[in-house]
Design goal:
Layout: H1 10-27, H2 39-49, E1 69-73, E2 78-80, E3 85-93, E4 107-115, E5 121-122, E6 129-130, E7 140-147, E8 154-164, E9 168-169, E10 178-185
Parallel strand pairs: 2-10
Antiparallel strand pairs: 1-3, 3-7, 4-5, 4-6, 4-8, 8-9, 8-10
Length: 189
């Protein structure tokens, strides 16, 4: 008995064979070499790759430093005795050192007020407004200075004055303040 085998087209058979071979090769797992690294070698590699970043701390002799500030803005003619008041200023660091916005030796914005028709004044008012960030020499910032604590109605001279905390008010170094007359009255009427 003879079997007849159908004729197979050789190009088709070749393509099918190549397809099956590539399929089996791509599905087989890859062989990788395992490299043993000791814990000591791993630490050495990490130490070599670590870059240390040192913080540069500016040491300033504030008694000999050139102190300066330029303040732009105005004092409103009316402020409230019973609400928070904000005075918008632009201040420029004209000192030869960076003004730090937080921590030791920070510069903040304070104020003084003197009663004109009222016997009430405060020079070293504890209310201060912080800088939004450190200010390098020549840099400026816009700040809304919080004015609170005046409870007696009347006419006052209000002075906005930067302070280097723990050292001095800038006005004590002959730096001009932003100064103006204002009436403090009730705003709840």
């Amino acid at each position: 008995m003879k079997f007849k085998i159908p004729a197979i087209n050789w190009p088709v058979a070749t393509i099918i064979s190549l397809f099956l071979i590539l399929t089996f090769i791509s599905c087989s797992p890859r062989i990788t070499d395992k490299i043993d690294v000791t814990e000591e070698e791993s630490k050495d590699t990490i130490e070599e790759e670590t870059i240390e970043i040192e913080e540069i701390v500016e040491v300033v002799d504030y008694e000999r430093a050139q102190v300066g500030a330029e303040i732009k803005g105005y004092i409103p003619s009316f402020l409230c005795t019973d609400r928070d008041n904000y005075i918008k200023i632009e201040i420029t660091n004209t000192s030869d050192f960076t003004w730090i916005s937080s921590g030791k030796n920070m510069v903040r914005i304070g104020y003084h007020y003197w009663g004109q028709d009222v016997d009430y004044s405060e020079y070293d008012n504890p209310s201060r407004t912080s800088l939004p960030n450190n200010l390098e020499p020549g840099e400026s910032a816009t700040i809304e200075v919080l004015i609170i604590g005046v409870t007696n109605e009347g006419i006052y001279v209000l002075q906005i004055d930067p302070v280097l905390e723990g050292h001095f008010w800038f006005s004590s170094k002959d730096i001009p303040m932003l100064e103006g007359r204002t009436y403090f009255g009730s705003c709840s009427d």
